[in-house]
UniProtKB/TrEMBL annotation:
Endpoints of the signal sequence: 1-20
Highest taxon of source: Eukaryota
Any single Pfam family the record assigns to this protein: Lipase_GDSL
InterPro entries assigned: GDSL, PLB1, SGNH_hydro_sf
UniProt entry keywords in alphabetical sequence: Signal
An annotated GO BP: phospholipid metabolic process
Molecular function per GO: phospholipase activity
Gene3D superfamilies for the chain: SGNH hydrolase
UniProt name for this protein: Uncharacterized protein
């Protein structure tokens, strides 16, 4: 009888770690029972096997403008108009208590490396041009978040020029050759907005977009060992314009306004073109992922995660009041939960539409869950 309570406690822990749960916050999830052996290959990865996270993308991944601005209290010159809050980026933010995928993963591997922290002035790519001084990385804050505001798919190679050596620099806390890594890629919003004319129009066709994304993935495969790429789909950017039209929440500031940031917003015809392009991009991304499914004994895979966000379902404060184009902190937190919740689903189980839900619950992975890499 002396051992009844410890045995009962152990039994409850084991059962909880194998039962699917949905909770209000990741801290409420039960711990995973320890693995008996390490992952045998890319098809056997649990979430706690990942030791390093990285990201490629645009201003959304960089957390641009998410904290908004108090126009009455601080005026148009507030630095938040031009800031990236990378520590709260939905995919790779690492600030304390931030609701992000990287922090969800940290619940299961407290020593995970690579998450971006804090904030800084925006680092900007402009079409074909990425480079000093506009696109300046801050390695101690960016860490392995290589996203650049303004980036399009053709800029992914530039981002990898930063990400790969920065990842190799973690020699004191990680083993570059042996540790499992996850790199999240989400790109395509600026590509849609550039489709209606301009200097890079030929670089944002579905074929060009696909070629740039696949080139980045092939480079990752060639230069980064033991990695799964979480390839996120695109969403239809056009939805922000009817949502924000006439909203007093969206305060004009003269230079950062959604219609100025996206020239394709000028007509219904152009916005339909953007929507069609988003669909075409997603078809290409799905095809790329299908070519790079995980294989037995393999160490590389691409898993496709659609993000068919129904922007019409957003409350207006899910967008930043800086420009009513980028997601706010509230929007980032919702996206983090939505993407996390589908990370453990097979492709035929993933959502066809993501409608905003206040207080969305968080999935607790079980000891039997594996990342759907195959």
């Amino acid at each position: 009888m002396l051992f009844t309570k410890p045995i009962f406690t152990l039994a409850v822990t084991v059962v909880a770690s194998t039962m699917a749960l949905n909770v209000a916050k990741i801290a409420d999830c039960p711990a995973l029972s320890a693995r008996n052996s390490s992952a045998k290959d890319i098809t056997d990865l649990r979430i706690d096997d990942i030791k390093v996270v990285g990201a490629l993308g645009d201003s959304i991944m960089a957390g641009f403008a998410m904290m908004g601005v108090d126009y009455e209290g601080s005026g148009i010159l507030n630095i938040s108009l031009l800031s990236e809050y990378r520590g709260n980026s939905y995919a790779i933010g690492g600030d304390t208590n931030a609701v992000t995928i990287a922090n969800f993963m940290k619940k299961y591997n407290p020593k995970i490396q690579g998450a971006s922290v804090l904030s800084h002035l925006a680092s900007l790519c402009n079409g074909e041009t990425c480079g000093f001084p506009a696109s300046l990385y801050r390695p101690l804050r960016d860490n392995l978040n290589a996203a650049q505001s303004g980036a399009v798919a053709m800029n992914l190679d530039y981002e990898l020029d930063y990400l790969i050596p920065r990842m190799k620099s973690y020699i004191l806390s990680t083993n570059y050759q042996k540790d499992w890594k996850m790199i999240t890629i989400q790109i395509g919003s600026n590509d849609q907005c550039a489709a209606c004319g301009g200097e890079i129009t030929e670089h944002v066709t579905a074929d060009a977009y696909s070629n740039y994304v696949e080139a980045a993935i092939n480079r990752i495969k060639a230069e980064i060992p033991k990695v799964v790429v979480n390839l996120l789909g695109t969403f239809k950017v056009s939805g922000v314009f009817p949502l924000s039209a006439g909203q007093s929440y969206c305060v004009p500031n003269g230079f950062l306004e959604n219609k100025k940031e996206c020239s394709c917003s000028s007509s219904a015809e152009n916005m339909a073109k953007m929507d069609a392009l988003s669909d075409a991009y997603n078809d290409k991304l799905q095809a790329i992922a299908n070519k790079h499914k995980g294989q037995p004994n393999g160490t590389f895979a691409v898993m496709y995660s659609p993000i068919p966000i129904d922007i019409a379902s957003f409350p207006i404060n899910a967008l930043s009041n800086v420009d009513c184009f980028h997601p706010s902190l509230k929007g980032h937190q919702w996206i983090a939960k939505e993407v996390w919740n589908q990370m453990f689903l097979k492709s035929n189980e993933k959502p066809s539409l993501m409608a905003f839900k206040e207080n969305l619950s968080v999935y607790c992975p079980t000891a039997n869950d594996r990342l759907p890499t195959a």
